[in-house]
Write a structure and sequence with these properties.
This protein folds into 3 domains: 7-278, 3-Layer(aba) Sandwich (Rossmann fold), CATH 3.40.50.620; 299-413; 421-474, no CATH class. Helices cover 41% and strands 14% of the residues. It has 15 helices and 17 strands. The strands form 6 sheets. It has a 4-stranded parallel sheet, sandwiched between helices. Strands 7-8-9-10 form a 4-stranded antiparallel sheet. The protein has a 3-stranded mixed sheet with strand order 14-13-15, covered by helices on one side. The two termini are 41 Å apart. Bound molecules: adenosine monophosphate and zinc ion (ZN). Adenosine monophosphate binds next to helix 1 and strand 11. Residues 33, 35-36, 44-45, 47-48, 73, 240-241, 243-244, 273, 275-276, 282-284 line the site of adenosine monophosphate (AMP).
Length: 476
């Protein structure tokens, strides 16, 4: 069981590769770039963590001991990835008239809550970048003599000082915004800040003393430092959104090379999830009017419907966020929940190793985490009339383990999330429906139509003859 060879796409070789742990005794070590906590995570950010959760669930299910780190970026990330602009935390603090430390604590909490709502397993550790500043300074001191130079605005990494700089990004021209050179004195456009000095006469809310003066670390430094401290280099897998393939991870690799004095990138696999996009392109926090998980729940959508929506696309494909896609995911989840809830009570029997459904699940997820292929296997299994209930329940343990849809616990009632602006409670809706049923029994169609129209006006769609017996749903 779970014996199919695991194949993952490695961005560094741009190919599918067989995954084997680097060091079986240490287990599999995974580092995921975490969120920058200056505002609510948007649904695109959360897609990145549904992806890492799928990765870690698959690794664990296939029998690996796992150490997974997701950091929290609470300092260092500038308003542009290319070393330009202000620190995102400072900018948010200034705009909102709040303290940067309070802002980061607040949004880190929102992030943790969103992960729990999406049934994303707690990583082994979620370190804060600000707790590692002393270690970052030590790392910078170690690489400074051979790889860095100091100019007025700070300490910069000389991108020409390591072999093959930018190999992750592909061609040098692909190193995104790194080509833009907004900082005076930089030797090469792609050189990046290791330490940003606070300009004379200014004070930042988040700043530390260093050999290069008072200031704050560059963003890329934190991930090299936290990953090497917590996992040891080289580790197995480093993840992030596809935007990180052009700048952030390129620079992390350069720092890692400088630190080890070798050509090693620091991780065996570099994996990147593609974007959640909307009609206007990549979803991003800076665009304003962002879609958050809380906003989705406020519209009556269960968070796991969003998880299912993510799983229904391959992580390396773009996924469009649209009301239609979301409604389709919600319906798909409802159908699964109804089918599972309709199973008669019965003890789970053992799911034996040669069960065809487990083999198919294993084959799908071992093929570069192909969750869109795994979902129809789940649906076929649940609908299979030849399987005993005990067997289905045993298999569901495995599917829940890998896909995290929580089907063994999710109830029909839990799926009925009440929208924030709902005018009717579920009880009131049920009462109206009973009234309508009576009107129809009395052949009082005018009254039954009036009740239905009233429900529609309140955003409730009456579903006559739904094959799963779902009487009503809320329109998104
Ligand atoms: P940030 O909070 O901006 O540091 O981003 C957190 C994670 O979300 C990173 O791994 C990003 O690459 C990823 N990310 C940002 N926008 C999107 C998006 N629209 N779709 C998928 N992932 C994204
Ligand atoms: Zn990072």
């Amino acid at each position: 069981m779970n014996a199919a060879p695991l194949t993952l796409y490695n961005s560094i070789t741009r190919s599918l590769e067989r995954f084997e742990p680097l060091d079986a005794a240490k287990g599999v070590r995974v580092y995921s770039c975490g969120p920058t906590v200056y505002s609510d995570p948007h649904l695109g950010n959360l897609r990145a963590y549904v992806f890492t959760d799928t990765l870690s669930r698959v690794l664990s299910w296939k029998g690996n001991r796992l150490t997974h780190v997701i950091n929290i970026t609470d300092v260092g990330h500038l308003t542009s990835d290319a070393d330009a602009g202000e620190d995102k935390m400072e900018a948010a603090a200034r705009k909102q008239g709040l303290n940067a430390w309070d802002i980061s604590r607040h949004f880190a909490d929102v992030f943790r809550r969103n992960l729990a709502d999406l049934n994303i397993r707690k990583p082994t550790q979620m370190p804060l970048a600000t707790d590692y500043v002393i270690k970052m300074i030590a790392f910078a001191q170690a690489i400074a003599p051979d790889h860095c130079y100091e100019i007025e605005s700070g300490l910069y990494f000389d991108s020409r000082s390591v072999p093959d700089y930018g190999r992750l990004a592909g061609s040098q021209d692909d190193i995104g915004e790194g080509r833009i050179d907004p900082v005076e004195g930089k030797r090469h456009p792609q050189d990046f800040a290791i330490w940003r000095k606070t300009p004379a006469g200014e004070t930042r809310q988040m700043e530390w003393d260093s050999p290069w003066g008072r200031g704050a670390p560059g963003w890329h430094l934190e991930c090299s430092v936290m990953s090497s401290e917590l996992l040891g280099l080289p580790f197995d897998i480093h993840t992030g959104g596809i935007d990180h393939r052009q700048i952030h991870h390129v620079n992390e690799i350069a720092q890692n090379q400088a630190h080890c004095g070798c050509a090693d990138s620091g991780a065996k696999f570099w994996m990147h999830n593609n974007f959640l996009v909307d009609r206007d392109g990549k979803m991003s926090k800076s665009k304003g009017g962002i879609a958050t998980l809380d906003a989705l729940v406020g519209r009556g959508v269960h968070p796991l419907a969003y998880r299912l929506m993510c799983l229904s696309a391959h992580y390396r494909s773009e996924l469009e966020f649209s009301p239609d896609n979301l409604a389709a995911a919600l319906t798909r989840l409802k159908r699964l929940v109804m089918a599972v809830r309709a199973l008669p009570l019965s003890p789970a029997t053992d799911a034996s190793g040669d069960d065809d459904y487990l083999v198919q699940l294993d084959a799908a997820v071992s093929d570069d985490l192909n969750t869109p292929k795994a979902l129809p296997v789940l649906e076929a299994m649940v609908a299979d009339k030849k399987l005993t209930t005990g067997r289905k329940l045993a298999l569901l343990v495995h599917f829940d383990d890998v896909l995290g849809l929580d089907l063994l616990n999710l109830t029909r009632d839990a799926l009925r999330v009440r929208p924030a602006d709902a005018t009717l409670t579920p009880e009131a809706i049920e009462a109206r429906l009973a009234e309508r049923k009576q009107a129809r029994a009395d052949k009082d169609f005018a009254r039954s139509d009036a009740v239905r129209d009233e429900l529609i006006a309140s955003g409730v769609e009456v579903m006559d003859g739904d094959p799963l017996g779902w009487d009503w749903k809320l329109n998104l």
